[in-house]
Specification:
single chain; 466 residues; alpha/beta; Rossmann fold; UDP-N-acetylmuramoyl-L-alanine:D-glutamate ligase; Protein-Tyrosine Phosphatase, Chain A; 3 domains; seven-stranded mixed β-sheet; 34% helix
Length: 466
């Protein structure tokens, strides 16, 4: 835990008692603040009481006594309408902040030079964050990994000289962190998302930009128009900037050349890494993630050889293009996290041919029609779940398919067909392009079931990492 003493002896209101909210309340209490906790649900309030925290109905509280409202990032700050606690805080002139802001203030007070890497973007945040932490750990650094990726930031060990905090930040968290100023700020990309919470793309992009605006070193992807404009503004402001592109050339920065990543500067080029053969970093989207990570850890002093060694041992993230192992000749890949067509597109684009594709569940708007440019890579599709009728209609006459209905039957059929196929390395790919809740509680359970079925087979073999 990181005890937060920047509010020692003062009263604060805290709303939202999920995992990060409870961690924040404990950190504030450990630092000597008087914390009045509340949640709209009984479960959160009961958990706070069980943790020995003070639970108080903030609707009936005297807000004049509070110095701050600590808001859970999942609670609306501005859109579609401000939460009622936000209205009360504003009426009383009480500042509204979140757990990332508390970390930033504690770091500024206790260890202002402690290395702090903050990562955001619409897509790729978690993989990039995990890869940065992995590279630093492989280099022998003391690393604390958390934020939006899973462990609440205030559940991590406190900032200290020589200890690197690697923190994934959502737009909701950034919006509640006005003093965010990391050592290295990483902005991967900006595409439409969360407009119900931010109103417009312009506002959403501006919130993302805040993460790099106060950073010592800004690492910015330049493959979308919003981030390209962010990079131009950073350059004009005079701060340290590293541009990263995997889609087009940059005269100065880190770019992709085939499977390689290359540093360019004033007409010179210097190889950074080659991703060929690294199964956990397949595809252009993962090349972008790897390039962002390389740029970030380079800013913290890691040398090229250490980085290359760390890339080769990156285990990847569960359910995100996870190479589970081989079943006979076939490679089994768990991409259960792909709950929409955009995510599945990245998986299909990562393999040129030989795909046995397990797809289906609760379809999102548009279904799998946008994936048509990749249909020629698919040997056969195996339809599961509620979307089977709709997906069969889309695939009919274009991709051979069977209605498997369940994941178990789909996997058996896919493995049998893959073993008989002529491809050098057939791939059995679970990338559903759908939500899971017709057959599974969430994508994690769906992916874990796929993994368990694969690894239980007598012909299963793990992938060697030499």
């Amino acid at each position: 835990m990181t005890p937060v003493d920047v509010f020692a002896g003062r009263a604060v209101a805290l709303f939202g008692l999920g995992g990060s909210g409870l961690a924040t309340a404990r950190a504030l209490a450990a630092g000597g603040a008087a914390v009045a906790c509340w949640d709209d649900g009984d479960k959160g309030r009961d958990a706070a009481r069980a943790a020995g925290l003070t639970v108080e109905d903030l609707a009936a509280a005297d807000w004049a006594r509070f110095d701050a409202l600590i808001l859970s990032p999942g609670v609306p700050l501005t859109h579609p309408v401000p939460h009622w606690t936000v209205e009360k805080a504003k009426a009383a002139g009480v500042e509204i902040i979140g757990d990332v802001e508390l970390y930033c203030r504690q770091r500024a007070k206790a260890a202002p030079d402690a290395p702090f890497v903050a990562i955001t973007g619409t897509n790729g945040k978690s993989t990039t964050t995990a890869l940065i932490a992995h590279l630093l750990r492989e280099a022998g650094r003391d690393v604390q990994l958390g934020g939006n990726i899973g462990t609440a930031i205030l559940s991590l060990e406190p900032p200290a000289a020589g200890r690197v905090h690697v923190v994934e930040c959502s737009s909701f968290q950034i919006d509640l962190a006005p003093s965010l100023a990391p050592s290295v700020g990483v902005l991967i990309n900006v595409t439409p998302d969360h407009l119900d919470r931010h109103g417009t793309m312009e506002n959403y992009a501006a919130i993302k930009e805040r993460l790099i605006a106060g950073s010592d070193t800004a690492v910015v992807g330049t493959d979308d128009d919003y981030c390209k404009a962010v990079a131009e503004r950073r350059a004009a402001a005079g701060g340290t900037l590293v541009r990263v592109s995997v889609e087009h050339d940059e005269a100065t920065g880190l770019v992709r050349e085939g499977t390689g990543l290359v540093w360019r500067c004033d007409g010179t080029r210097k190889p950074a890494a080659d991703l060929a053969g690294i199964g956990t970093l397949r595809g252009v989207h993962n090349a972008q993630n790897a390039a962002m990570a390389i740029a970030a850890v380079s800013a913290l002093g890691l040398d090229a050889e250490t980085i290359r060694s760390g890339l080769a041992t990156f285990p990847g993230l569960a359910h995100r293009m996870e190479s589970v192992g081989r079943v006979g000749r076939a490679l089994a890949v768990n991409d259960s996290k792909a709950t929409n067509a955009d995510a599945t597109e990245k998986a299909l684009a990562s393999f040129p041919s030989g795909l046995h594709w397990i797809v289906g569940g609760v379809a999102k708007e548009g279904g799998i029609a946008p994936l048509a440019p990749y249909f020629d890579r698919i040997e056969r599709a195996y339809l599961i779940g509620k979307s089977s009728d709709a997906f069969a209609a889309t695939l009919d006459g274009r991709v051979p398919y069977e209605r498997s209905e369940t994941l178990e039957r789909a996997l058996e059929s896919a493995i049998a067909a893959a073993q008989a196929a002529g491809a050098d390395e057939p791939v059995v790919l679970l990338s559903p392009a759908c939500a899971s809740y017709d057959q599974f509680p969430n994508f994690e359970v769906r992916g874990a079931r796929f993994r368990d079925l694969v690894t239980a087979r007598p012909d299963f073999s793990p992938i060697r990492k030499d």
